[in-house]
């Protein structure tokens, strides 16, 4: 089999050569690129590396486009003729484009074509070649990206190109990046002077990204330590120390952010329960499933509006609130209202409902997790300092959870329904005597709690998997937060969630994730022993009546 | 008297018809969770077996009888697996069982199988350290997945610093113990290995991913070996993507992430991270194309993927059919020895062989994740690897061998002391 393949390959090359002789008038680059492309489909990874660097050497628009397409994974070849083409995936199949003429050739099924494969090493190599050619691009962000790629590539032979690019560069931001890349490449040279220059640069511009680079440099020096490089060695050590102290300082802030982020998720997940359990006293084990319903609503919204992915989360919010809220009201009207004042029966009934809802989702959407796409504005990092970047997604969720909290407080204290809810909660019979329809208020409260859980589901769909088990994974944490914070108090839930989140994140580096969770749980249990009503206990008559 | 006679006749005729109906079909038990946490992975395997049975019946059944599937739902509840196994064998009188996913469920089923002399085909990669007379392990043993994967990292990618992350249960713990011993034996320093465990369904990976980043900045090429199970993978990879850990900087190789897991994931940021399996859907062989086509037709959905445990079930089912055809009966004690040395084509273009330690000989493939949720096969072992029930890298296990043919006839024979330790599993 292998021999035949090689023979075919030789045959193809022969054909190309014949073709070259027949078309002497054609410009030479086209022939050259033809030859390289013809060799691509049957090349092994090591052979591809040679082909890629040759394509890069051509420095033509077409060859760079081919490399970019190769890197992006849109370069294919036809199984039948081994012709290399661009292929773009669409709903109905792959649209093929000729490489030299840029004409659309046709549309085929996936079986007819095969991707020209890359492995990690080759992908990195291709990226470096592309970066090399786009260092002088018109767009500053492409120049920055190129410099970053070369920074990570360890290709010391690119130093002259970098030097040249630096001379021509006028944009300060790009210049800084290229300087850093230059300093990084200096370290790889044998020249002691350049190495020293590089370390000087890095000691003025500390960045955790170079920590690994300098550590590596030190390790290489270790093997051949002598008097002549002792100076450089000490210099390198001092740079690393500087970076480490930087990291240590920002680690604290980072941990705090991690804790806030975990806390905001815990808060979002449990605030709905704070209403149904805290305000109404219903032990609602189906609360997690309301979150799940919200997450699935996000998935369905993305399916329904495939062109509005960027706005899908905003669109999902009202839908999730309504869908989960309605399900909540149905549960309250259908089951829970017959069980008020019987906590054990409520517990069993809601547990049953949670199982039913899970299996329902399994039957409708299959037990397999559903992919929810993260919009672009939710991904990426916000760089505060080279040693500290926060992810946008987490940042938005923290802000979102605070917004939800404020909105809920406003609803409960300012709106008519909110006041009625509080009245029923504080003294049911008195409220009824005043003409409040307590049954209706019960439904509304439960619907509100469930709807908020649905909104939490929208946020959680960005963090974790959307599957039938989503709710189950959060329900214990939710109860823990509500009980710890103090039943019936939104402030308690907020503080509880953030304290547990931050505590967990500060424990984790020392104890590991498993133990951190256990320690938190033990702490909460001990705390509840001391203060059975949680941190923010309701005082006065309300708490006595609600017992 | 007359009435009694009629009654007796009726009862006997009912019993006879029942017996004749029972004799008309060969019953195949399917023991996969269709509800609960494991339904995500196991329900596909149930469908795979139903498809194989359907195909076999179209070919005219087995030994002139139709195959009949008996599907039970152990609901991801480990003790229930044992109960359902008893039900399958004692009530439904099945001749063979295809089932289980987690090691816990397999361990809970083992005593029942051995007591009632059942036969189980177990299709999932696992931690090894077991060989039961009544189980055929068609998934990978550690030397068919973990060790070759680590070798690939070491030799092809030049990884010098290792992070072993896993979910906190038996499979990752045992695998990581084996891998740590293996790495130390290859001269990796103890401080260059970091081991981290997380609870089931862990969803907040910020700290651990930050730790990985920090561990990787020591100036040596760093790689992550992941035995993270099930659902927890999605947030883990999402976090890697957000933080911007690229596969070219710190590659992650996973043993529990396949096509099915990636189907629930936006794979864009994962491109280049790796997985080690014995089968990928992207394998180019006629058998694979045919199997994928049959699967799509059976399930009625062209977008469904195939994965490694499915291939294991296909191989296991075909082997069992072949063994039964060879000996002309479904009697467990006759079929079992007929399995040894049997060969059937696997789906990657090679041949699978059943060995006397109840493990398969299979090729090991390393794949890189592509943006469409498929894998690019970047490495394949030149020949099939024989599954090793007892690892060579733990001192207690290296002296044990499994061989179910005479003279040894034992799943854990100690070659030093020359005794079968008597431990059943």
Account of the protein in words:
The complex is a heterodimer of chains A (547) and B (425). Chain A is mainly alpha-helical and 547 residues long. Chain A folds into three domains: 2-121, no CATH class; 134-225; 249-380 and 392-545, ABC transporter involved in vitamin B12 uptake, BtuC (Orthogonal Bundle). In chain A, 70% of the residues lie in helices and 6% in strands. Chain A starts with a helix and ends with a helix. In chain A, 41% of the residues are buried. With 425 residues, chain B is an alpha/beta fold. Chain B has two domains: 2-141 and 288-361, Rossmann fold (3-Layer(aba) Sandwich), CATH 3.40.50; 143-283 and 366-382, 3-Layer(aba) Sandwich (Rossmann fold), CATH 3.40.50.2300. Chain B contains 13 helices and 19 strands. In chain B, strand 8, helix 8 (233-243) and strand 9 (252-254) form a beta-alpha-beta unit. In chain B, helix 11 crosses helix 12 (332-339). The termini of chain B are far apart. The chains are: A mainly alpha (547), B alpha/beta (425).
Task: Please render the helix and strand layout as text.
The complex is a heterodimer of chains A (547) and B (425).
Chain A: H1 2-22, H2 28-39, H3 45-58, H4 61-72, E1 75-78, E2 84-89, E3 94-97, E4 104-108, E5 113-115, H5 120-133, H6 140-151, H7 159-168, H8 172-188, H9 192-204, H10 209-223, H11 227-279, H12 287-304, H13 312-334, H14 343-365, E6 381-385, E7 388-391, H15 392-414, H16 416-426, H17 428-433, H18 438-460, H19 470-485, H20 490-530, H21 541-545
Antiparallel strand pairs in A: 1-2, 1-5, 2-3, 3-4, 6-7
Helix pairs in contact in A: 1-2, 2-3, 3-4, 3-5, 4-5, 5-6, 6-8, 7-8, 8-9, 9-11, 10-11, 11-15, 11-18, 11-19, 11-20, 12-13, 12-18, 12-19, 13-18, 15-16, 16-18, 19-20
Chain B: H1 2-24, E1 25-31, H2 39-58, E2 66-72, H3 78-91, E3 96-99, H4 103-116, E4 120-122, E5 135-137, H5 146-155, E6 161-167, H6 170-185, E7 193-198, H7 206-215, E8 222-227, H8 233-243, E9 252-254, H9 259-262, E10 274-277, H10 286-299, H11 308-327, H12 332-339, E11 343-345, E12 351-354, E13 360-362, E14 365-369, E15 375-380, E16 385-386, H13 395-398, E17 400-403, E18 410-414, E19 419-420
Parallel strand pairs in B: 1-2, 1-3, 3-4, 4-5, 6-7, 6-8, 8-9, 9-10
Antiparallel strand pairs in B: 10-14, 11-12, 12-13, 13-16, 14-15, 17-18, 18-19
Helix pairs in contact in B: 2-11, 3-4, 11-12
